[in-house]
Amino acid sequence: MNSYIRFLAKLAETQTHNLSNYERLLLNEVALQIHASNVMYVTDLIGLDKIASQATLHKALSSLVDKGLLELKIAKEDGRRKEVHLTKLANKHFEALSKNLQAATAG
Description:
Elements lengths: L1 H13 L6 H15 L4 E2 H5 L7 H13 L3 E5 L7 E5 L1 H19 L1
Helix pairs in contact: 1-5, 2-4
């Protein structure tokens, strides 16, 4: 438990994007899907009713785009769909989280 508490303390020190819980959950979901080599679409995110309502998810998604953590690209195979991608800023965010986790478990 001490490692987790140290991780939470490190996390609190480095929070720079002021993410809401919904934004954090969506960003994590995109990262997990991309890490698994899956393409994530806006409709996939908006359909995550286990997290929140469609309206709340749409607002969180828009906010993540505005904050520069996610970008939307029109799908090549179907111009009506939009793919969701992590930005360089999002990758830096996850790198910082990884470093904090490593530091917390090392000490």
